[in-house]
Amino acid sequence: NLMVTDSKCLRVKLVLLGDSGVGKSCIVLRFVRGHFEPTSKVTVGASFLSQTLALQDSTSVKFEIWDTAGQERYASLAPLYYRGAAVALVVYDITSLETFRKAQYWVKELQKHASPGIIMALVGNKADLHESRAVSFQDAMEYAEKNGMFFIETSAKTADNINQLFEVLLEA
Ligand code: GTP
Ligand code: MG
Question: Can you give the pTM of this predicted structure?
Fold first, then answer.
């Protein structure tokens, strides 16, 4: 299994993929540092952060998070980060159909080239902008179900469902 246990700490290598501007870095910063950076800079290459969660049974889980760059020019680097990952979060922006299509591209790539048994979640971010919604909850959920993925809508801005996103992965 790709999740390595050393003593009482489960280590989980996790990668975020998705179009530029969907909010991958903001999701990670919200989860790791607990705040929102509205002026978040475009990621170059990829960035690494980790966050440890204490579980009820006195064990803990350490997420080793690779936040990849969504700009097209970095697409060829993605395999470096998703190879060997236990979990992939494929992120889109609920106000942009284009980013939902890009998410489907990443799902196909992961199905072809990632480790068999990788846990995948489809993440519809910017849920706070529901008045500009372009991707329905139902359509995204059906797509995720068909592809054996978790599905969740989040907001890095309001923190809605950010912790739940990471907690739900532990049930897999
Ligand atoms: P790349 O690094 O280029 O791949 O982009 P990214 O996916 O990391 O996007 P990033 O996290 O930098 O977010 C881009 C912008 O979207 C941010 O500057 C925020 O202003 C905005 N943003 C991110 N998350 C949210 C959210 O949940 N709600 C709203 N309203 N805006 C968000
Ligand atoms: Mg980024």
Answer: 0.95
Mean pLDDT of the region 149-159: 98
**Cβ contacts of residue 53 below 8 Å, gap of 6+?**
60, 61, 62, 63, 166, 167
Helix (H, G, I), strand (E, B) or coil at 22: coil
Q: Which of 66, 71, 91 is nearest to 152 (CA)?
A: 91
Ligand 1 within 6 A of CB of 125: yes
With the most atoms of ligand 1 within 8 angstroms of its CB, the residue from 20, 26, 65 to mutate is 26
Does residue 2 come out as left (phi exceeding 0), alpha (psi in the -120 to 50 range) or beta? alpha
ipTM above 0.95, yes or no: yes
**Looking at the DSSP assignment, which residues form a beta bridge with residue 88?**
15, 120
Tokens at residue 5, please?
Answer: 């246990």
Indicate the SS3 state at residue 47. strand
Contact 2, 117 (CB under 8 A): yes
User: In angstroms, rounded to a whole number, what is the distance separating the alpha carbons of residues 112 and 36?
Assistant: 34
Q: Is the CB of 156 under 6 A from ligand 1?
A: yes
